Amino acid sequence: MARKHTILDHPIIGYFILLIFVLVFSSIGADLIDKPLSSVIPGYAKEMSGLGSTVTSANGVGAAIFVILAVIIFTFWFRPGFKGVLGLKGFLWGIVVMLPFLIADYIGAAIDLHTFGFGNVLVAFLSALSPGFTEEAAFRGLGVANYMRTIKSEKQIKHIFWLSTLLFAGIHITNIFSGANLVAGIFQLIYCVGVGAILGAVYLRTANLWVVMIAHFTLDFAGLINGYYSSSGGLSAQLVASDWVNLVASAIGIVTSLILLSPKNYPQIMELWKEKWSQ
């Protein structure tokens, strides 16, 4: 018999509880692993200024490791009724579907790389792991999986899709308060709608968390690897070429997601998640 939980059985409340659960694990991993690493890897820790204060933080591989731990704990909590979302099924399909969006994004990153040159590649790689894993597990992974466990109608699918997409995009507006340029911050907000939409749609269609975590990681790595974003920790002080290209990528992401989540695909999505939550 599958384990039940009073709070998690509420689809929306459960979504936010699990979001916080992932963020707590990510923070623990950053403190236990990334903070010590920052003392031996130059540039790993970043100073972030905003609202009259400056903080130094390092988030990367440690946060990612603990996020995976959180996903494993969630999976075992609901065993044997839950098969988990860390398998390989649907991975290749998900990558292929996202290719037009990913290629558009990589083109923007390549233009910036040509303009600003390479930054610290190791730091970019480690730093990109944190948002790639943390944000996918928090905004989509656990909350969406639990939501699909609790709903009864396929018409409810669009609710979690838009909630996760807009919340993911909205949280990035905090970059403006951390020193990012206002206009560049608005561009990033629009871009994040497209990112959240296509990653959310692919996750709903595959029930595979690896595909969206790795895709998200590559997006951040492609951005952070150049000298401009590498030196600023990912914050934009001005509009650059990739900001304009990202608008195109965002449009591709939104259109692709709406095709993937057209009502005719709802029965297939429900059946996929029903199989994941088989008793």
Summarize the structure in words:
- It is a single chain.
- The protein has a two-stranded antiparallel ribbon with strand order 1-2.
- The protein is mainly alpha-helical and 279 residues long.
- 70% of the residues lie in helices and 4% in strands.
Inertia-based shape: globular
Order of helices and strands: HEEHHHHHHHHH
DSSP strand tally: 2
Structural class from helices and strands? mainly alpha
Spatial order of strands in the largest sheet: 1-2
Distance N to C terminus: 6 Å
The number of helical elements comes to 10
* Largest sheet, strands/sense/barrel: 2 strands, antiparallel
- Average pLDDT works out at 90
Task: Name the beta content range.
Answer: under 5%
